[in-house]
Amino acid sequence: MAQLRREDLWSLEEYALRRNEFRTALMAHNKTRQLALGRHARLYFSDDVTIRYQVQEMFRIQKTFEAAGIDKELSAYNPLIPVCHHSKATFIIHFGAPLLRAPRLPDIKGNELL
Fold this sequence. Notes:
Order of helices and strands: HEEHHEH
Number of helices: 4
Strand content: 5-15%
Structural class: mainly alpha
């Protein structure tokens, strides 16, 4: 699948019913789609399943149900789905505890990767 379409997504009500099962399946799916880069950094390789989960979660949080809002989110997230044999990944820096995170944020700020 190269692009997510509106018809590929569940309504907010349907997603509420399926969310726990989908999240459990996604966590298992993601175990083979990540690469640790040290103690606090990780690459998460995306595909249509991981992006669909992100989109569904965004809609749930923002209560998005109108066509224009759905199309806007799809246009933002669809470029994150790899095409053919290409890979796309999200670089995540994770400091779980706020006391660990706060002193490190100034070191990270301004070092965005493109």
